[in-house]
Give the backbone structure.
Amino acid sequence: MKKMWKVVAVVAVVALMASCLVACSGKDDSKLIMATNAEFPPFEYVTEKGLLGEFDGIDVAIAMEVASKMGKQLEISNMVFDSIIPSVVSGKADIGVAGMTVKPERLEQVDFSDTYWVAMQTIVVPENNTDITNVDALVGKTVGVVTGYTGDMAVSEVEGIKVNRYQKGADAIVDLKNGKVDAVVIDAPTAENFIKRNPELKGVSDDEFFGKEEYAIAVQKGNDDLLKAINATLAELKESGRLDEIAAEVAERLANE
């Protein structure tokens, strides 16, 4: 009987230690935690009835596919854009998915998946504006950008442009409509969504200045197993045409909101 009690006691201690490890680390192996900034439609945004709770968008759908293939449940952690990479680096999040462009300075901190989207920047201006036709025309103007986004990095390098930074693209658009900024520079798919909702605005391209952007998923450096799982899912989504279907479905939901 004493031996039996010893066995029971050992099992209880092991179980307690295991539960403590999960609780203390704050990580649950059954979940895939996605860090994002849900202010970037059509890639991630908040809505009444989303794909996952209040969250919807192309990136949300992709991350759900990744989680499903791994046999995990996706959990979304919404935060300001500049906190996404630190969250992945620290291990608080497993993946960073937010229409994030692969850049050398980011590659120093995290590893990136294969590219899943190629985008450009758009200059959003009032529909009746005829002066702003490229980035050079923004010199002497006040331009709204989202902190940490590519638009922020790009226009901040141009001398003579006054930059107003926002945490949300929607807030920059409101200030543009109210005349507080002369233009807003943001990723093309998001600009297109804002313009559809605000016909008094239009988009101006300067592809020679901005160039192409490649969106990818960030993971903690050295997490090769997760990276392989993500890349395998992305390859399947591209080859099957499902990625295009996801984008079309998100566009339709946004149009009906």
Q: What stands out?
A: The mean pLDDT is 89. The two ends are 67 Å apart (CA to CA). The first strand starts at residue 31 and ends at 36.
